[in-house]
Design brief:
CATH class of the largest domain: Mainly Alpha
Largest sheet: 6 strands, mixed
Strand order of the largest sheet: 6-8-9-10-7-11
CATH superfamily of the largest domain: Peptidase M41
Number of strands: 16
Radius of gyration: 42 Å
Helix content: 40-55%
Distance between the termini: 85 Å
CATH architecture of the largest domain: Up-down Bundle
Structural class: alpha/beta
Bound molecules: adenosine-5'-diphosphate
CATH topology of the largest domain: Methane Monooxygenase Hydroxylase, Chain G, domain 1
């Protein structure tokens, strides 16, 4: 810490402020002591007043060549310039004025010096001392001379009986398994050193946001009962170059003192991004911090008991130097939970609230396909809030179902009033999707359709539910999916003969899927199994970039249009063939605003059974 100098600038400012304040004080206070109101007159006035016997006191100040005098009541002080006057003594004698003394008692020079200079300095010194002591207390301890700069502000997670355990992290069994070894090592390091095995120094937890990476790291510390240091990568990046590096040094110093312990660096990509990768060129501070981190990781011996866990959702952007053996050499994927995992996470969080008999978390888990742990926790919380809003303390199934829609699609927009015609269009649009989906062999059944506008901007909403988790999709299934996306627009075309802007999201989805089929999944005859696109970050949005010649791009675009067109046509045919059902279902949705999957299938199959 010695090399970190205390910031000089603030002190300089402080001194300047003090100086300015002293000068101001002087200007205000000094005149009060030494001067009062003085009226300047000429010598003739003085002589006139003397002759008229109107003088009170008179002081002849020869050194300044002036006369100070007061009126008879001694309320006004006059000053007049003196001219040589041999009759002055006689004039004074006959005027009846008191003279020979000092009118203005000059303030004692020592007192005035004390009052105008020493007192303000003492006051400001005392205030300054008080302020700096306060700052020291804030920065904490003797390091406070540096005002806390360069000191790592890693939060130490205090062990308590309430510490997070593996059992609190639902699902994620694979991740827990690979971390269990670390816990075992921290419990009995001897076993490992005797066998000559060394623990990895760093473990990288990789996965989308909200999947419980932080929780897992805390759980490792909780299970092993060791201190837990937690800091976010972005906290290292400081305003001053070199401060981040100094923070890293300090963090490792603290950790070594507390070993065995866990150091958790969240969002390590904030400092661990590839150096000189182009977009971030010239960020010295970040590079220095990363270099320091690498040096520190190399610096400490294996088996010192300091285990570094780091989390990121952008593993591909990390500097290769970070992930090489000896540093973060183990990578633990923390993926989005599957159906079972989702149910387990819901169960963990549902324990914190009161649930009604009718609650079926399996159904909720099925409906919330693709949700992360954090989103599931949010769903439970939203449901509890909804229950409170309607004056209950017990959460029921419909609270949970509604809160899925809230978390995924936003709140119901109470004041958005659709015109009659708009409502009808939306109803047909949504039924169009559902009907195309249901009529195709491979599509997932519909769970629920509503046409209550959402704050997210969607006017209607169709919830599809997979019966199980799907890892592979066939070409036909993908094509059917595209047809389903186009179903909404197709219904509008058939029924109203014109189209609306309501299909923009469908268009985006259908295009994305069709493009992926051709450029990534090798599902076209023309391009066979050649990758024309690479995904640059799989956990965040999955943006893809094209890696082919411009002519090929043109060709791909043409194929994409063709693919969507065929599916659009297919959707239209399906709807035309089922026009009566389309009308019946849309009418029902228009009247009731919500239709469940069961009701939908009921209406759809009604005529077929009889
Ligand atoms: P990450 O670090 O991956 O972004 P967090 O660990 O901060 O995610 O998780 C955020 C919240 O989500 C947690 O506080 C917890 O409530 C919830 N959560 C996420 N994953 C799980 C899980 N597997 N089990 C239970 N709760 C989870």
């Amino acid at each position: 810490m010695k090399e970190v100098k205390s910031p000089k600038k603030p002190l300089i400012y402080y001194y300047l402020i003090v100086l300015a304040a002293i000068l101001l004080f002087n200007m205000i206070v000094t005149p009060l002591i030494s001067q009062s109101q003085v009226v300047e007159v000429d010598y003739g006035t003085f002589v006139q007043m003397a002759e008229d016997q109107e003088l009170g006191q008179v002081e002849v100040d020869e050194s300044q060549n002036q006369i100070l005098f007061t009126d008879k009541d001694e309320t006004v002080l006059y000053k007049a310039g003196m001219i040589p006057d041999p009759d002055l003594a006689q004039l004074l004698k006959t005027s009846g004025a008191k003279y020979g003394g000092e009118i203005l008692k000059q303030a004692n020079p020592i007192v005035s010096f004390l009052l105008s200079w020493v007192l303000p300095i003492v006051i400001f010194a005392l205030v300054g001392q008080y302020m700096s002591r306060k700052l020291m207390n804030q920065a904490g301890g003797k390091d406070a001379m540096t005002f806390g700069l360069g000191k790592s502000n890693a939060k130490i997670y205090v062990q308590s009986t309430k510490g997070i355990r593996f059992s609190d992290v639902a699902g994620e069994d694979e991740a827990k398994e690979s971390l269990a070894e670390i816990v075992d090592y921290l419990h009995s390091p001897k076993k490992y050193t005797e066998a000559g095995a060394s623990m990895p120094k760093g473990i990288l937890l990789v996965g989308p946001p909200g999947t419980g990476k932080t929780m897992l790291a805390k759980a490792v510390a909780g299970e092993a009962n060791v201190p837990f240091f937690s800091i976010s990568g972005s906290e290292f990046v400081e305003m001053f170059v070199g401060m981040g590096a100094s923070k890293v040094r300090d963090l490792f110093k603290q950790a070594k003192e507390k070993a065995p312990c866990i150091v958790f660096i969240d969002e390590i990509d904030a400092i661990g991004q590839k150096r000189n990768s182009g977009h971030y060129g010239g960020n010295d501070e970040r590079e220095q911090t990363l270099n320091q981190l690498l040096t520190e990781m190399d610096g400490f011996e294996e088996n010192t008991g300091v285990i570094i866990l780091a989390a990121t959702n952008r593993p591909e952007s990390l500097d290769p130097a970070l992930t090489r053996p000896g540093r973060f050499d183990r990578r633990v994927p923390v993926e989005l939970p599957d159906l079972q995992g989702r149910e387990a996470i819901l169960k963990v969080h549902a324990k914190k609230i009161k649930t009604a008999e009718d609650v079926d978390l399996h159904v909720i888990a099925r409906m919330a396909s693709g949700a992360s742990g954090a989103e599931l926790a949010n769903i439970i919380n939203e449901a509890a809030l909804r229950a409170v809003r309607s004056g209950r303390t017990v959460v029921n199934q419909s609270d949970l179902e509604e809160s899925i829609e809230v978390v995924i699609a936003g709140y119901q927009k109470k004041n958005a009033v659709l015109s009659d015609q708009e409502k009808r269009v939306v109803a047909y649009h949504e039924i169009g999707h559902a009907l195309v989906s249901a009529k195709q062999f491979h599509s997932a059944p519909v769970q629920k359709i509503t046409i209550i506008p959402r704050t997210s901007g969607a006017l209607g909403y169709t919830m599809q539910v997979e019966t199980g988790d799907k890892y592979l999709m066939t070409k036909e299934e993908l094509e059917d999916k595209i047809a389903t996306y186009t179903g909404g627009r197709a219904a509008e075309e058939i029924v109203f003969g014109s189209v609306t802007t309501g299909a923009s999201n469908d268009i985006e989805q259908a295009t994305k899927l069709a493009r992926a089929m051709i450029s990534r999944y090798g599902m076209s005859d023309e391009f066979d199994m050649v990758a024309m696109e690479t995904v640059s970050n799989q956990y965040l949005g999955g943006d893809a970039s094209l890696t082919c010649a411009p002519e090929t791009q043109k060709e791909i675009d043409r194929k994409v249009v063709e693919l969507v067109k065929i599916q659009h046509e297919k959707a239209r045919k399906i709807l035309e063939a089922n026009r009566a059902k389309l009308d019946e279902l849309a009418e029902y949705l228009y009247e009731n605003e919500t239709i469940t999957g069961e009701m939908f299938m009921d209406i759809l199959t009604r005529g077929e059974n009889s």
